[in-house]
Amino acid sequence: MAPEGPARQVLEHTDRDIAPAEVATAYRGGRRSIAYVELVLLVALLVGLDFLFLPVDGFAEVNPNPYWIPIILLAVQYGVFEGLIAAVVCTAVSLLSGVDPEFYRIALEQGPAAAMEQSVGGGFATFSDEDYFVAWTYAAQPILWVLAALFIGLLRERLRQRNQELAHDLAQTSHREEVLSSAYNQLLDTKEQLEIRVAGQLRTVFTLYQAAKAIEKLGPGEVLIGIADLVRAVMQPTKFSLYLLNGNVLEAVINDGWEDDDAYARVFDSGSPVFQQVVGRRRCLSAVNTDEEKLLAGEGIMAGPLTSVDTGEVVGMLKIEKLGFLDLHISSLENFRILSDWVGTAFANARRFRKAQSNMLFNEERNMFTDVVFKSHSKLMRQFGERFGIDMTAVTLKAEGLDVLHPERRAGLVKAVHDVVEHHMSPVVQAYEYRQNGREFALILPGVDPETMGDEASAGIVRAVQHYLRVAGLDDVRVAAKVMPLYRVPREAADENRRAEGA
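Structure tokens predicted for GAF domain-containing protein (503 residues):
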């Protein structure tokens, strides 16, 4: 597999070298014009000095000749080509400065050949050894200038090339260092993001496990309490709601994240498109699809039926009104379908269990008789009171408060009711479930007149239950009592009974 990202940049950079010749050409082109200007200025300065302070002879009597200065400077500073140009220019200026002015006059009037013949006493064919020696004297200095410019310029070129190679290597190394540093920082960021993601996934898995445990309950109310945590763990929505099917109507029972100005419908009847699609056709709707978005009509982003996988029964609808942009993708749609089936199955199972539990006589979890027994005992105690002339009163207790259906709070509430019956009531008094929702109970009090003693007895029971709730640390749970008359002995018969007991 080919490397990607910064690592690939590093590998590509080693194959993408900058040609030193290109750098040298660009450098020389920019510097050559400056070299020519410097050469003109230096030669003009030397000619001026020769004209002002010496006989104009090209510094023939000065040793070393000042024309060495521009030649050496340009060869050292710019290289071979500029040094040779300086040597040629200095040679021409030096030789022309030392020529007799009469030579120029004859050359202009009679021509260069006549001027040369008169200057040397004949043509080149009549050159004597002395003439050649004089010619060598004039040619030796320019030859040395050319050789010096050549050798010094070559050394300068070699040094410049080496500097360019070192600069190129340094640039490559610096760039490679920047790329490696960038790659390291990117890998470090990626590692941190992975650590955050792994930690988030661990938290999500743990939260999902806790939420899944919360809905695996046997009571519909307990399942409803756990559904909110499960939906938040799986979908992470900002706003969502849960509707239960009541006949031909979907009624909202959970509205999480809704604000006061939200205009979402709390009821969907059988004529609404959402009801027909979700309940009738058992179809999951998503605002991602244009046609399904029209069916939702601004009621949310996703909506799906709560279906029992075991029986196929539709018990309600789960709807998400607001979801983060990055959380809406193909996987989230599939997760929403699975979540709807999961919640629907759990709730349908809880309903079936509650229906089966309605025929039970004793609730082992709460250690008390069920509402079925309470209804039967109420009739029996009413008949018993009518036959023997004894007042019969039932007191119902209903707990209200924050998270009263939480398992620990419900256990504390049941224990408080048992403690009241055990420590404050006669042995014939029993506690019953008034409704199987975990927060409503009933007591049957024989011998208590529902009209004259019912309110006082119920108030005493409430005070006792609240006392045990405070002992259990459930101060925010409030208990309300209601007197339910079962049988009241007529006052004439009651007076006769008291007189008979007195006799």
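The chain has three domains: 6-184, 220-357, 362-502.
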